[in-house]
Amino acid sequence: MTNTSELALRHHDADGMYQLRAPLLTVYTEVYADLLGDPFFTPERFWERLEAYAKWPGFALVTGWLRDELVGYTLGYRLPTRSAWWRGFRGDVDPQLLEEDGKRTFAVTQLMVLPGWRRRGYARQLHDALLRDRTEERATLLVKPDNIPARTTYLSWGWQRFGQLQPFDDAPVYESLMCEFSDRSHIIRL
Ligand SMILES: CC(C)(COP(=O)(O)OP(=O)(O)OC[C@H]1O[C@@H](n2cnc3c(N)ncnc32)[C@H](O)[C@@H]1OP(=O)(O)O)[C@@H](O)C(=O)NCCC(=O)NCCS
Q1: What pLDDT, on the 0 to 100 scale, is given for residue 190?
Q2: Which keywords does UniProt give here (predicted)?
């Protein structure tokens, strides 16, 4: 008999993302229910951002399923040469670290698990599946400083504080985190 609490992981490219539009938005609207009144967080704006990420090479989506129910997912893309990603960055780092050559950095742009299925290690499984075979040197992501569960999670997984970043004028100011892949074993359970 199938163990119903065992998460099935699936990998998708951009086409796969479009095929999963409805369930991806269903999970998003449940996870971000409290923020949907903010124009930046409406499902329409969220989907526009996903479409923008999906245009870039190196785009990847990993979904987690229990039987036929999508319970969480994570996705990201490789920052292109002279990416606008770092435009709203605030922090005291070597400017060379903000230069993108189209191969260097994988940006994790989403990681979410439905509220009813948290604290079971599912986010960790999604995270590891997304990052395990990446060819870039490093990964970066943004987290709201008051998002204690996510921030605690990332720092406990080995991500490092890098600075602050406001990606769009009407977006929140996020904390920018970074992880180097030189020794991937500190960040991913291989
Ligand atoms: C952040 C999130 C993806 C974690 O999902 P999850 O499946 O519960 O995470 P996991 O079970 O894999 O890992 C949890 C680890 O993170 C930490 N963690 C998770 N939830 C936490 C909480 N509420 N408070 C403190 N630490 C927490 C713990 O270290 C935990 O390990 P433990 O359960 O062994 O103690 C989930 O809370 C979520 O979807 N939040 C809303 C979306 C979001 O904020 N995403 C991140 C955007 S940057």
Answers
A1: 55
A2: Transferase
